């Protein structure tokens, strides 16, 4: 197989890491036992075996003691949740750690995410299987999934697999929920007298697994660089052709870190940040007005083009849409939602009626059903539903998950906003307050950001996290997450070690139950990253101060540059 010079360069890239990880190292205590972020007593009661442990750090092996070869270890690893660039380098780090300590060690990868562990589906990871995946994007060597390990049956099945395969360690590569699950599993295994040590690795492009202990999740740096490249290309298109507004929705369901970072990198005319929308209780109408005002102001300067970015999770942060969704969930969940039509029976309730209209693909029937659903909503929500472009009303009422809930991530908020702005501008035209031309092209920048080539940073970071996770397992750090700190410095200067997962936990009420969770970090509006954006954004609105970032660099100047928000920190 012939490789391009870049492909070859990536295959041969040797991740940089702190020198301590290159030789035999020890893991030592670096703090007193850590309390949970909040609700310490409740967390203690839930995790008696893994709570109140100290932070640990990796340090040079004490030179006076003889260097020892590690005992052979058998390790399992799985990817959980959405892919993020760099995941394969976690496997590479784990593999190389094991190989460096004892060549009789082995690494198994569970297929398709946590379900692979539950069902005992795995494959051995050897240098031969791994070498083509080093420094490459995707999670496809193993696959990933969103199954959770939380019910008694799932926990028991996971435990059984660990016992059957005699795993010394299990490394779970995931986001906040997956690491919460990792902690639950660590506790469960310890309580049953198992010896498998569960260790987490912080992953997610969304960047919302970040707290006092974890500086960054892997994947964020690469995904933002790719999205920024695309947004700045669209900005160049806008200013060149001078005829359209590019409206882009960027991934990140719960937090707007990606949108904020891409805004800082590319200087769009407008960037909407969900956390600010929620804080200022901005309704859909207010957001539509903000965009329409911008379009009018730019039109007055003869600029009928521009770039607007918004986060994937926006709809859930607008108070009016949020209440509408909550009400719809209640009305539509009156009967189990199903795909397709009730066999033979006449529709019984809104949920079934919606299914039927949807299955028939009849837009008029759908609208009749939506009108009927609206009758069961509060006055405000009914009015909002009927004011939405019909495609969105249909999307809200008909596209539901297996629990009957509205699938918020499927809502094309960029199209919703574009259509409503168009309507608003038409109104202003009639009133004589606007005379420009508005044409919007919408984009969703999502999945393409999760599997691209990892940046040098993510290659290094993931490899280091893999090595560290191996070290944590070897030292029996059950219920820990691997970490590296000082990430704005050169990798050779990073500090590495582990933090007990319970130290990052609190209790939150979700779906009517109090449960232990690792909280998602959302954009801190008082923090330096948002404040920096707030200071700058006004100058981006009318001027075309687009920053054209170009493709991610892998060598030469700028190749090791971090995303702006990681450089500023919160
Ligand atoms: P993770 O938190 O699992 O890393 O996934 C993040 C994400 O990429 C979000 O940005 C997005 O909302 C979601 O995954 C989409 O997930 P799915 O693959 O299930 O459509």
UniProtKB/TrEMBL annotation:
Diphosphate binds at residue 82. GO terms for molecular function: 6-phosphofructokinase activity; ATP binding; diphosphate-fructose-6-phosphate 1-phosphotransferase activity; metal ion binding. Residues 340-359 are annotated as: Disordered. Pathway: Carbohydrate degradation; glycolysis; D-glyceraldehyde 3-phosphate and glycerone phosphate from D-glucose: step 3/4. Its main location: cytoplasm. Mg(2+) binds at residue 176. It catalyses: beta-D-fructose 6-phosphate + diphosphate = beta-D-fructose 1,6-bisphosphate + phosphate + H(+). Substrate binds at residues 204-206, 251-253, 312, 447-450. One of its GO terms (biological process) is fructose 6-phosphate metabolic process. Non-allosteric. Its cofactor is Mg(2+). Residues 74-327 form the Phosphofructokinase domain. Keywords: Cytoplasm, Glycolysis, Kinase, Magnesium, Metal-binding, Transferase. The record marks 203 as: Important for catalytic activity. Its EC number is 2.7.1.90. It is found in: Cytoplasm. Homodimer or monomer. Belongs to the phosphofructokinase type A (PFKA) family. PPi-dependent PFK group II subfamily. Clade 'Long' sub-subfamily. Catalyzes the phosphorylation of D-fructose 6-phosphate, the first committing step of glycolysis. Uses inorganic phosphate (PPi) as phosphoryl donor instead of ATP like common ATP-dependent phosphofructokinases (ATP-PFKs), which renders the reaction reversible, and can thus function both in glycolysis and gluconeogenesis. Consistently, PPi-PFK can replace the enzymes of both the forward (ATP-PFK) and reverse (fructose-bisphosphatase (FBPase)) reactions. PANTHER family: PYROPHOSPHATE--FRUCTOSE 6-PHOSPHATE 1-PHOSPHOTRANSFERASE, PYROPHOSPHATE--FRUCTOSE 6-PHOSPHATE 1-PHOSPHOTRANSFERASE SUBUNIT BETA 2. This is Pyrophosphate--fructose 6-phosphate 1-phosphotransferase. It comes from Cyanidioschyzon merolae (strain NIES-3377 / 10D). The lineage of its organism: Eukaryota, Rhodophyta, Bangiophyceae, Cyanidiales, Cyanidiaceae.
